[in-house]
Structure formats: structure tokens, C-alpha cells
Write a structure and sequence with these properties.
Blueprint lengths: L2 H23 L9 H15 L25 E2 L12 E6 L5 E5 L5 E2 L4 H12 L5 E3 L2 H4 L13 E3 H11 L2 H10 L3 H15 L17 E2 L1 H14 L2 H6 L3 E4 L8 E4 L10 E9 L3 E10 L2 E10 L2 H15 E2 L1
Antiparallel strand pairs: 1-13, 2-3, 2-12, 4-7, 5-6, 8-9, 10-11, 11-12
Helix pairs in contact: 3-5, 3-7, 5-6, 6-7
Length: about 325
């Protein structure tokens, strides 16, 4: 082999060696398509380590900011420990500023029980009409529970039947809506369709009353439901804040006085809402309150004692934030 070929082979070996060294030194970076992605990866890990899981993404050193409405937002007092939570999931957030006071497992799906009736009310208003006359069926009054005191053959307007359903949590009223629309299959189709339109991606409905443990949702979806009601059917919450109502069938002279079963009806600042209870769901609640000049939504799923836990949450917010 002459000197010319020996020089070419030596040069090739040098180039191959340099190439292998470059590949080895870039092994970690090869997991990302650019230097920007490396920085994003590092920044994400840093943010996660500096974030309280209790608030699902709010940095512990976040400063006071101003809402789009020009209102100065509360500042977290980090000397106050996170609130103890018994419930499976909880969400407390201001409606106008979207300020998250407390977010805990907000994407955890859970049986929602009679909170289902809020979706039933929306479908009844939009697909039947508030002034439509609806006859209570014999099949409906056979449903579990006697809340609302409905009698087969009575006729109510959609609005009055919704009031009965929400204020007394009447299963009979909910199933009357199903019967009026041709049966459960059609009405549930409309309920799931409406949930999808609202953006409730993790919500599935199997009956209008919420008796099935297969009726599931999560706090995040229920927040979307709350906002939809406020924007499109605020009377739903206005009705549910009433301590009692008077209703009368359109085909009878008898007037009925019905009490609100929501335990927070007489609580100062209560702006309406719905509870739900099942053995599989424990105690659920979706309520609105006026709190420190804020309108806040409180969603609690799977509590052992919502009457005790919700006031404790509100007291904690009072102590943990500077307003």
C-alpha cells in the first residue's frame, strides 16, 4: 500500500472518531428537538417542585395581580397551612375573576347524584319550554322517594315542575320530564348532548334524577355547568335559593307549600345551588355564595359531612388569604 492510500485511510479514521464523539456528547439533548425544549423541560420540573399540589399549578411565590375587571386579587398567606380535606374532590373559585381559592382533585370523576337535576332543568327549559304543560305520569310517581308530593294526573308548567324538582330534589319530577319527552332513552340523549355542548368532557348521564351511580362528572366539569347556568338560565339558581315555594297544578285548586332541602338555604350569602347524596357518592354539593365581595362557586364531591366541611373551607379561605 503506497503512502497516498495510507494517508486517505488515516484521514477517514479521524473523521469517524470525531463523529462518534459528537453523537455521544449529544445523547441527552437528542431526547428533545431543540435547545428551547431542553429549557422547557428544566423549567417545567422546576415549576412542579415549587408548586403546591393543593392549588394545581399556582406558584407559591405568585404575586398579587389584578383581575380583568380591575379588581385586586387576594394574596395567599403561605404561613397558613393548606386546609384539611375530607372530601374526594373540592373546588372553590370566584366566578367573576376566575380566582382559584382551592382546587383539589378537580379532574377526579365521581358519582354526582342529584346534582344531575341541574342538567335536567337546562334540557327541560331548552327542549320543552318553560310554559309547556306537563302531566305527571303514574310511572314517574313510582320512582324512589316522595319528595315534592306529586300525584299522577297533576299538570304543571315546566317552570313549576323544575322548581319542585330542584327545591325538594324530587325524583318524580325528574322522571316526569323523561316521560314527557318519550322516555328515558331520548331524554338522556339530550342530557348527554347538552353536557357535551357545555364542554363537560368527563360527564356521563344515565338518568334524569341522579339515582344511578353511573351518573358521573368532576369538579372541573361542574364549574363549566355553573357558568353555563349563570350565563343562560340564572333563574335556576334564583329558584334554588328560596327557602320555600308555593306551587299549584294547572288542573287543580290545591296549593302546595314546599320547603327547600338544601342545608345552606338559611346561610348568609347563599346564592343558590344543588346537593346530591347516594351511598356510592356520599355527600355532594354545588353552591354559590357571596363571600368578601366575591361571588364564589363551591363544589364538593364525596364528603362525609358537607354541612361541616364547607363552612370550614370558607373559614380557611378567610384566614389563608389577604383580601
Amino acid at each position: 500500500m503506497n503512502i497516498k492510500w495510507q494517508a486517505l485511510i488515516f484521514a477517514a479514521l479521524i473523521l469517524i472518531s470525531l463523529g462518534l464523539t459528537r453523537v455521544g456528547s449529544s445523547g441527552f439533548l437528542s431526547m428533545f428537538s431543540s435547545a428551547e425544549e431542553v429549557q422547557e423541560h428544566i423549567s417545567t420540573d422546576t415549576a412542579r417542585s415549587a408548586t403546591s399540589p393543593f392549588f394545581e399549578g399556582r406558584s407559591v411565590d405568585s404575586a398579587s395581580t389584578t383581575s380583568p375587571l380591575g379588581k385586586v386579587l387576594p394574596v395567599r398567606k403561605w404561613s397558613v397551612l393548606d386546609a384539611p380535606i375530607n372530601a374526594e374532590a373540592a373546588l372553590i373559585q370566584s366566578l367573576d375573576e376566575s380566582f382559584p381559592f382551592l382546587h383539589y382533585r378537580t379532574y377526579k370523576t365521581w358519582p354526582i347524584a342529584s346534582i344531575t337535576k341541574l342538567i335536567t332543568a337546562i334540557v327541560a327549559l331548552e327542549d320543552i319550554g318553560e310554559n309547556k304543560k306537563i302531566t305527571v305520569t303514574q310511572e314517574a310517581v313510582k320512582a324512589e322517594g316522595i319528595a315534592g308530593g306529586l300525584v299522577s294526573g297533576e299538570v304543571y308548567t315546566t317552570e313549576d315542575l323544575i322548581k319542585i324538582m330542584l327545591i325538594t330534589s324530587s325524583n318524580d319530577a325528574a322522571f316526569t320530564f323523561e316521560d314527557h319527552m318519550g322516555g328515558r332513552t331520548e331524554f338522556i340523549r339530550l342530557m348527554n348532548k347538552k353536557a357535551g355542548e357545555i364542554g363537560m368532557k368527563d360527564t356521563v348521564i344515565h338518568d334524569a334524577a341522579g339515582l344511578s351511580e353511573l351518573n358521573i362528572s368532576n369538579a372541573n366539569d361542574l364549574l363549566k355547568l355553573t357558568k353555563y347556568i349563570i350565563e343562560n338560565h340564572p333563574d335556576i339558581f334564583n329558584w334554588t335559593r328560596l327557602p320555600n315555594i308555593l306551587v299549584q297544578p294547572t288542573n287543580d285548586q290545591t296549593t302546595k307549600s314546599l320547603l327547600n332541602v338544601n342545608p345552606f338555604t338559611n346561610t348568609e350569602g347563599f346564592l343558590g345551588g344543588k346537593t346530591g347524596t347516594l351511598p356510592e357518592a356520599k355527600q355532594n354539593l354545588l353552591s354559590l355564595f357571596s363571600f368578601n365581595e366575591y361571588r364564589i362557586v363551591v363544589i364538593v364531591l364525596g364528603s362525609d359531612d358537607r354541612v361541616k366541611e364547607v363552612p370550614e373551607f370558607l373559614q380557611w379561605i378567610e384566614e389563608a388569604y389577604e383580601f
